[in-house]
Amino acid sequence: MVKPCEAEPGHMDLKTKHQDEAHMKDTYSRAGDAADPPYLSPDYVGTRIRSPKQPLIIIPQTLSEITGPVYGHSDAKPEEADLTKQHAGEPLGERIIVKGRVLDEAGRAVPNTLLEIWQCNAAGRYIHEVDQHPAPLDPNFTGAGRVVTDAEGRYEYTTIKPGAYPWRNHNNAWRPAHIHLSLFGPSFLTRLVTQMYFPGDPLFPFDPIFNSVTDAKARDRMICSFDMETTKPEWALGYIFDIVLRGPSETPPDLD
Amino acid sequence: MSGRTPSQTVGPFLHVGLAPAPFGFREIFSPTVADAGVAGTHIRIEGRVFDGEGTPLPDAMLEIWQADSEGRYTHPADGRPLASNSFRGFGRCPTAKDGGYQFATVIPGTVAGPDGKTQAPHINVGLFSRGILKRLFTRIYFADNPANATDPVLALVPAGRRDTLMAKPDPAKPGVYRFDIHIQGDNETVFFDA
């Protein structure tokens, strides 16, 4: 599994960056931080004792940050992009195809980057031992997958639509249906773990994790779109979800 | 410019996707950053992760990213050839029920820093868990390394808090450094934003 790096970041010319460390201009944007939730989001009770009280210390983007783990084509197998074909039978639920592009803030494709995928089954139950929701497990569904973006940043996977499920954050708390996604991108600073939600979910107003993102437009960027073109007749509904990672700083590095 | 996709927590079931071996799904990451053939001083880093009430986190995950023993990163932005093809510099470890984690690696070399300065050997750490809405970023430095005195990133940290970034040799276990993380509280670990 361990191989020399064979991928390139593709969309960012960083080849000689270590020689330019003396200039220490930001390589990646910072302002977009506003989209992310704060560490302390009190309605999400778990954040109260799992968030730092001291302010973060702002540091320069050094070689240690503008490099990062590069995981791509050698790390995922094509069959891992179909979560409905990992067992002897087919999982129960509504079969769906999710596809989209991974882009940076400048709109450029992020090619050859790994997405890790996990979710509960159609009944709202994870295969995980910590999940005690009294809904059935599905012997034909694990809920784990991987896919790598192509040269244009495109990805596609097949799964079943996850169910909503209760949790103990507050009385009668339910999570809207979601799929967890983890991405690396080209550097340590582009790492993203997020959740993809489905359009029109009636649980949105009540979910403190979704609403930990305080900006409504940013919340919308976590919701996929139904897409008839992606939908396959007699087979599966299709959804589109583009993912935007941190991109270049708006002011290009001064190399003179 | 397009707006970023916001971060969300990994949640309590992160292992299904990020450390999936127990569920019968192929594992691609491990806590072994450097296997025996990699050049350098081989060490283990062991520690535990605690919340603001001092309770260990049984459901967290750490990722580490580091240079090799010569200070080179396995990444095109570094560009220098590596001595060992088996070194990628990345490790991932979920915490155990007691909040514990461990990595097997080599002590990294010094790395270029801002303004022509040199960064002391360090390892970038990402911490994820239920209740953490966005990866927490800290660094592991090595308490016994004299280069810490001139490290430009440590210099940005109030002197009284630098100790939270120091992995310390375990007197009972040769080759082991200890590094605990306190997300919140009296001995709160320093976290960074870059």
Descriptive notes:
The complex is a heterodimer of chains A (256) and B (194). With 256 residues, chain A is mainly beta. Chain A has one domain: Protocatechuate 3,4-Dioxygenase, subunit A (Sandwich). In chain A, 4% of the residues lie in helices and 22% in strands. Chain A is built from 2 helices and 12 strands, in the order βαββββββββαβββ. In chain A, β6 (165-167) and β7 (173-175) form a beta hairpin. The termini of chain A are far apart. Chain B has 194 residues and is mainly β. Chain B has one domain: Aromatic compound dioxygenase (Protocatechuate 3,4-Dioxygenase, subunit A, Sandwich). Chain B is built from 1 helix and 12 strands; from the N terminus they run αββββββββββββ. Chain B has one helix at 15-18, and strands spanning 42-50, 60-65, 90-94, 100-106, 111-112, 118-119, 122-129, 136-142, 166-169, 176-178, 181-182, 192-193. In chain B, strands 1, 2, 3, 4, 7, 8, 9, 10 and 11 form a 9-stranded mixed beta sheet that branches. In chain B, strands 5-6 form a two-stranded antiparallel ribbon. The longest helix of chain B is centred in the N-terminal third of the chain and has 4 residues, at 15-18. Chain B is globular and about 40 Å long. Chain B starts with 14 loop residues before the first helix and ends with a strand. The model of chain B has no long low-confidence stretch (mean pLDDT 96). The interface between A and B is large, with 99 and 84 residues.
Largest interface, by Cβ-Cβ below 8 angstroms: which chains and how many residues each?
Answer: A-B, 99 and 84 residues
Overall pLDDT level of chain B: 96
CATH superfamily grouping of chain B: Aromatic compound dioxygenase
| CATH topology category name of chain A | Protocatechuate 3,4-Dioxygenase, subunit A
User: How many alpha or pi helices of chain B?
Assistant: 1
Rg of chain B:
17 Å
Question: What is the CATH architecture term of chain A?
Answer: Sandwich
CATH class call of chain A: Mainly Beta
Distance between the termini of chain A: 41 Å
Count of domains of chain B = 1
Residue ranges of chain B: pLDDT <50 for 5 or more in a row?
Answer: none
Per CATH, the superfamily of chain A is: Aromatic compound dioxygenase
Q: Strand fraction band of chain A?
A: 15-25%
Query: What percentage of residues of chain B falls in helices of 4 or more residues?
Result: under 10%
